[in-house]
């Protein structure tokens, strides 16, 4: 897949709310994106998807400091993004277990290198440094069980890599894990045709 796109400036980029300075010459950011991927179903219970991509954002809107203390936005930046995504889904057969209606496992890994490039250096953004606020690695996985068509269990785990906090990448957040647990019971009120979930 080869595609192009653009993103218009926001009102917060047009106007600095602290100084009232107006960035009158802003244009839309432009992007050129190339993706190559494959998805396949290996059996009735296993499927996967793999995707690699590269994205170049030109006319990137970046802040510029004027007169030492006033900040406006300008279209002089460039951002390079390279990434990989892998998704695996398992829908495990449960026909031999009368009490287990379904068992589903999914896992997703994402790699994203998003860096300043080209003319961004003229604005004080070091080239080839990670853009702050974007984790390079992410890994998500989830397992779901349905018991007797009434009880649902779902456990989800997310891992986020460390995240750059500044433009020169001298400070990072620690990586962290996040776990969610969901349990629900379904009541079938057949006389009034209503299904209620308590979760």
> Compute the gyration radius: what is it?
24 Å
Shape: elongated
Q: Report the major sheet.
A: 9 strands, antiparallel
Low-confidence stretches: none
- For the residues shown, what is the average pLDDT? 87
User: How many individual helices?
Assistant: 1
**How much strand content do the residues show?**
over 45%
Order of helices and strands: EHEEEEEEEE
How is the largest sheet built, in terms of strand order? 1-2-3-4-5-6-7-8-9
> Helical amount among residues, as a percent range?
under 10%
How many distinct beta strands? 9
Can you offer a commentary on this structure?
A hairpin with a 7-residue loop joins strand 4 and strand 5. This protein has 199 residues and is mostly beta strands. The protein is built from one helix and nine strands; from the N terminus they run E-H-E-E-E-E-E-E-E-E. It is elongated. A nine-stranded antiparallel β-sheet has the order 1-2-3-4-5-6-7-8-9, with no helix packed on it.
């Amino acid at each position: 897949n080869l595609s192009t796109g653009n993103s218009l400036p926001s009102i917060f980029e047009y106007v600095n709310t602290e100084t009232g300075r107006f960035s009158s010459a802003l244009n839309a950011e432009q992007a050129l994106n190339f993706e190559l991927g494959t998805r396949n179903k290996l059996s009735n219970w296993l499927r996967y998807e793999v995707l690699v991509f590269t994205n170049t954002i030109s006319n990137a809107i970046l802040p510029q400091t004027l007169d030492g203390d006033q900040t406006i936005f300008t279209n002089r930046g460039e951002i390079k993004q390279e990434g990989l995504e892998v998704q695996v889904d398992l829908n495990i057969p449960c026909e031999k277990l009368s009490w287990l209606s379904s068992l589903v496992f999914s896992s997703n890994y994402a790699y994203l290198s998003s860096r300043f490039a080209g003319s961004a250096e003229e604005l004080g953004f070091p080239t080839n440094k990670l853009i702050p606020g974007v984790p390079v690695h992410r890994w998500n996985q989830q397992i779901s069980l349905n018991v007797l068509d009434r009880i649902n269990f779902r456990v989800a785990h997310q891992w986020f890599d460390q995240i750059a906090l500044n433009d020169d990448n001298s400070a990072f957040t620690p990586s962290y894990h996040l776990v969610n647990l969901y349990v629900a019971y379904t009541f079938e009120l057949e006389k009034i045709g209503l299904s209620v979930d308590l979760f």
